[in-house]
Amino acid sequence: MVASVKHTLVALVEDKPGVLNRSASLFRRRGFNIESIAVGHSEIRGLSRMTIVVDGASTAVEQVEKQLYKLVDVVKVIDITEDRMVSRELALIKVSATAAQRSEIVQIADIFRARIVDVAPDSVMIEVTGDEAKLNSLLELLKDFGIKELVRTGRIAMVRGTSEAVPIDEESVQKIKRRRKKTKTEK
């Protein structure tokens, strides 16, 4: 049995409706399970940064990368799995807590540098940021108290150091501007 690898892909995409749907559909058609996907504005106006984590063989991920480039709204894609990167996830965890249990839960949260963001008569809500292993370890310790609700953002990542993970040249920026201008005149 071949061990699968979680690949972290970063894509710069035009900030337009439907881009996320078309990108996710591409992965679905290729039979990839998206472990996580996070999208938000980038440092370049009009472009969003998409971080996608997929489980798959390198050659198949390479094919998906090539297919992503065929989508009109995709400007740049790079697989940063092998790069030195910083990756983070955010989680909100609502834990059952009696008055007697609160101090123990707070101590556990402190160990993980998590914050208590809400306290109710029967629960405590914890906010934690870190890599996947850190979040999973905290969840493991909290499960005995009873996790009432959980939400995780999915991975976001950047390559370490001064180099850009997704370098974009001026020609690509100009191409985007021309496409945007053309779309506006067609309306």
Brief summary:
This protein is an alpha+beta fold and 187 residues long. It has helices at 19-29, 58-70, 99-111, 132-142, 170-186; strands spanning 5-14, 34-41, 47-56, 74-79, 85-96, 115-120, 123-130, 147-152, 156-159. It is built from five helices and nine strands.
Features:
Alpha-Beta Plaits, 35% helix, elongated, alpha+beta, four-stranded antiparallel β-sheet, 187 residues
Structure description:
- The protein is α+β, with helices and mostly antiparallel strands and 187 residues long.
- The protein has 2 domains: 1-83, Alpha-Beta Plaits, CATH 3.30.70; 86-156, Alpha-Beta Plaits, CATH 3.30.70.
- The protein is 35% helix and 37% strand.
- The protein has 5 helices and 9 strands; from the N terminus they run E-H-E-E-H-E-E-H-E-E-H-E-E-H.
- Strands 5, 6, 7, 8 and 9 form a 5-stranded antiparallel β-sheet that branches. The chain has a 4-stranded antiparallel β-sheet with strand order 2-3-1-4, covered by helices on one side.
- The longest helix is centred in the last third of the chain and has 17 residues, at 170-186.
- The radius of gyration is 20 Å and the shape is elongated.
- The termini are far apart.
Topology overview:
Layout: E1 5-14, H1 19-29, E2 34-41, E3 47-56, H2 58-70, E4 74-79, E5 85-96, H3 99-111, E6 115-120, E7 123-130, H4 132-142, E8 147-152, E9 156-159, H5 170-186
Antiparallel strand pairs: 1-3, 1-4, 2-3, 5-7, 5-8, 5-9, 6-7
